């Protein structure tokens, strides 16, 4: 297995050589999804022989001879390219790498050879994915690839999918399968909404009671430290960052079961009602706990970012509690509970900074607070004029992740995919500098009505529509009708790779999904 | 394997003995879905030991000693009850049976024994399903069943699910899996919408070109005679009839590829446009072909019914064709093309009668024609005031199958299930005799956006809501809130049995669905 902690990658100029048996003839090229920035196909084609095909390194500026991430990717893509054949040419050598945003690569298929150039291993992974989509079989089963020149890089650096493992528990296998499919669409961030009101499946080593008492089941419905490591490692091997979210002060009901005095006791008149509200922001013990928990999170999750949530805080419980009201009075907050929320969030953001992590928050934190300088990245999720909101955030000099148009947990007919395709994150009035603050977008798969039974068909191929928007040049991908057959073909490729992607419309794939 | 052709079942009074080790204690009873007509649970419980559990026959009025349908059911339900244990007590003995509508049974669990009484094997199968839902495990893994008295029978005799294998091809395995899940919800008719405009996957032995040229692929996307036999046999073993639909004269584009001169050539002005419309009702060859095809269908599918379709016939192509217009003139139909349609349908219904099969048609045939006496069963599918339509049909003395409220191919949030539950097929003004003509209802899963990737989560557990409506007493099942926890529990049972049933709302099952 691959080492989990990302280190520094010393590979500066990465080049592969793909050995291809030349067998020249003419044919239509395969399509690629998401569309590369520069894509010059040609009808000239070369035959690939699985028996004599191999991946290799041509030249690199490091003294080490290979990279574990890419060696594993060679193996993976060989199986994808040639199901049933085995790849012997494996060198295992560990090279620690850093999760960079850089995903650019150049791919050239010419004269019976393919060469892939990339600045980073992550760019190389994107290029391998593109390469794998270029290979096709004729009716007799022979493999071909057309002469092709590609220069490619993503439009946005943050291309995320949120999975919610609190409203329903997702078995680790379902998460890994999603990571596979994400890599095929060139997504690079898995936003793990680990915990929420209904359950706390993250098994903390510092606070084991959080999942012992707060998970749906303390043994079968938890993510152990080993599960989390496995997810992070699996994602990293596919060029995907894992962004953990520990949403507070709202959305924390399940936290209260294993951590007494964390949540605010709600009052009915002068006596506690027995129910609990958001995290209690008035107690020093709250911040000691949060520091301790986030310290653990910061060490378990190597990503430089932590999502702190901060959405949908219900003030009614705080308002009912006389101790909270007394604190408000002492602090001079008047009756404005959003000031209390800001007080809490600022402290949590500061804790996160001390842990050398950058915080991401939901737009609520930005919307309801006057002091915004302490924020870094804001995720816009509310419906309505979301571009107005994007504009407000970038005008405040903060970075933005856009999620509003990509709430895919809502079921919808698949032909609806165009709704997720025709999204223009930069279509607002602003300077180039402001637009550069829009770092990307995210597909959200909330869990009220979603678990492992319907996750895949609800995500794919609709999420792939968002993926092309986030990767490709919007001028080249503005026509839904032109995109449709390419997305259909990509969906068939997903089926071929075992991803339960639902159909876009009437029709068929050469290889249909096989029910178990 | 079981014999495909149904014969006559001489078993009149069927009784089982289930041996249970007594181990008395008190506990809450398990729920059953759909709710039995009379259900008297008790907190008294008995322990079941997989090692010493067996099914057996107590008494029957035939000289034969067992029934293959039930022997296979014993084996199946033993695995469902006790996963991981193997059932040795198998007697193989073939008894041919007739597909009767009778599904009633009595089940009594008392003093460490369970006895199941039924008039037919099909009633016995329903009782076994109920029995299997009564058994539960405690936290230590021991099996229990509570003292229970049940008398049960279905409210409606026709409880169907339509699958559409033309708009997308469904691999046989996906159909079999659906049949499994149907049996768990006590559905008893699989309405197989085999062919339609997009493809003709039925491999006819008389007309092999229909699928050779009309299927999406002549080898990988067809149902061979052996596939069809397998589906029928698999369904029969689970007490499910297979109702084949060969929809005409519309919805037949794919037929034309392998059967020239069957479809009407459309004209642009005085010349054929190159496109084709509905079946050509003016040529004698059409009826020779239809007789020959339906003769094959009648012999391949043992069910006494054939669905003839007859919906959504577009007249524009008929109208464009001068030969059709000349025929209309000759027949004195004027400009009323619905008369031409009626002319065609009457002939096809007559052919079906000659083949000793009863025909079912979509409501269009009833709606647009004055002469209705030649019809038998009408399936109501249009939205709007569907009960008004049901009333019109029964007033004409015809039998009705109601499908309108159960078009589940449309995706919707699962909490929507109540919409399919709160359907009252008999809530129209009419005599008892008229109401008795409503023979049941049907869940339709059209294939525009559905294939094996999303079939299961889109069907289950929403179809189960319809199943309870069609099986149970409507007075006992009119409260959505009371049904909800029982349906949630049933959905967990479906997961446990490997059915990819999507969640109803936030929560968890003891055994979640495992991604492969």
List the helices and strands and how they pair.
Two copies of one chain form a homodimer.
Chain A: E1 14-19, E2 25-26, E3 38-48, E4 54-59, H1 68-81, E5 105-110, E6 113-118, H2 121-134, E7 136-137, E8 143-152, E9 158-164, H3 172-184, E10 189-193, H4 209-214, H5 225-237, E11 241-245, H6 253-258, E12 263-268, E13 271-279, H7 284-300, E14 305-309, H8 316-320, H9 322-331, H10 337-354, E15 358-362, H11 363-367, E16 377-380, H12 386-395, E17 399-402, H13 417-421, H14 432-436, E18 438-445, H15 455-459, H16 462-471, H17 480-496
Parallel strand pairs in A: 9-10, 9-18, 10-11, 14-15, 15-16, 16-17, 17-18
Antiparallel strand pairs in A: 1-4, 1-6, 2-3, 3-8, 5-6, 5-8, 7-8, 12-13
Helix pairs in contact in A: 1-2, 3-5, 7-10
Model description:
The structure is a homodimer of 516-residue chains. Chain A has 516 residues and is of the alpha/beta class. Chain A folds into 2 domains: 115 residues, Chitobiase/beta-hexosaminidase domain 2-like (Chitobiase, domain 2), CATH 3.30.379; 340 residues, Glycosidases (TIM Barrel), CATH 3.20.20.80. Chain A is built from 17 helices and 18 strands. In chain A, strands 1, 2, 3, 4, 5, 6, 7 and 8 form an 8-stranded antiparallel β-sheet that branches. Chain A has an 8-stranded parallel β-sheet with strand order 11-10-9-18-17-16-15-14. Chain A has a two-stranded antiparallel ribbon with strand order 12-13. In chain A, helix 1 runs parallel beside helix 2 and helix 7 packs across helix 10. The N terminus of chain A is likely disordered. Chains A and B meet through helix 3 of A and helix 3 of B.
């Amino acid at each position: 297995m691959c080492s989990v902690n990302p280190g520094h990658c010393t590979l500066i100029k990465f080049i592969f050589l793909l050995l291809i048996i030349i067998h020249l003839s003419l044919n239509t090229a395969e399509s690629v999804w998401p569309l590369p920035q520069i894509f010059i196909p040609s009808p000239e084609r070369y035959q690939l022989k699985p028996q004599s095909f191999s991946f290799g390194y041509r030249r690199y500026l490091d003294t080490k001879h290979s990279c574990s991430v890419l060696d594993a990717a060679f193996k993976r893509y060989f199986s994808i390219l040639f199901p049933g054949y085995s790849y012997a040419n494996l060198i295992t050598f560990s090279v620690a790498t850093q999760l960079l945003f850089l995903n650019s690569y150049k791919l050239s298929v010419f004269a019976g050879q393919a060469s892939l150039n990339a600045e980073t291993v992550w760019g190389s992974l994107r290029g391998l994915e593109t390469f794998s989509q270029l290979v096709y079989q004729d009716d007799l089963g022979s493999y071909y690839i057309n002469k092709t020149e590609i220069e490619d890089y993503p439009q946005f650096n943050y291309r995320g999918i949120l999975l919610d493992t609190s409203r329903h528990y997702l078995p680790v296998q379902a998460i890994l399968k999603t990571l596979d499919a994400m890599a095929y669409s060139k997504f690079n961030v898995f936003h793990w909404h680990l915990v929420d009101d209904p359950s706390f499946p993250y098994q903390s080593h510092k606070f084991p009671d959080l999942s012992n008492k707060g998970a749906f089941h303390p043994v079968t419905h938890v993510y152990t430290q080993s599960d989390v490591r496995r997810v992070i490692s699996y994602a990293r091997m596919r060029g995907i960052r894992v962004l953990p979210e520990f949403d507070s002060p709202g959305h924390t009901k399940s936290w209260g079961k294993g951590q007494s005095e964390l949540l605010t006791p709600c009052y009915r008149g002068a006596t506690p009602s027995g129910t609990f509200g958001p995290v209690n922001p008035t107690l020093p013990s709250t911040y000691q706990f949060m520091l301790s928990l986030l310290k653990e999170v910061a060490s378990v999750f190597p990503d430089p970012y932590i999502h702190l949530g901060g959405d949908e805080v219900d003030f009614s419980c705080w308002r009912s509690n006389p101790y909270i009201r007394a604190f408000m009075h002492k602090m001079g907050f008047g009756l404005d509970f959003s000031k209390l929320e800001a007080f809490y969030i600022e402290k949590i953001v500061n804790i996160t900074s001390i842990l050398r992590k950058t915080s991401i928050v939901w737009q609520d934190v930005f919307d309801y607070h006057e002091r915004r300088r302490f924020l870094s990245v804001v995720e816009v999720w509310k419906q309505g004029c979301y571009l107005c909101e994007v504009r407000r955030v970038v005008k405040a000099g903060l970075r933005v992740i856009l999620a509003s148009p990509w709430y895919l947990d809502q079921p919808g007919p698949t032909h609806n995919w165009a709704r997720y395709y025709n999204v223009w994150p930069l279509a607002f009035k602003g300077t180039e500098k402001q637009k550069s603050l829009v770092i990307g977008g995210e597909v959200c798969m909330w869990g009220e009505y979603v678990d492992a039974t319907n996750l895949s068909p609800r995500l794919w191929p609709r999420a792939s529509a968002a993926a092309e928007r986030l990767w490709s040049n919007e001028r080249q991908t503005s026509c839904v009708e032109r995109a449709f057959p390419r997305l259909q073909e990509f969906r068939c490729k997903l089926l071929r790779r075992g991803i339960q992607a639902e159909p876009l419309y009437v029709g068929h794939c050469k290889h249909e999904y096989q029910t178990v």
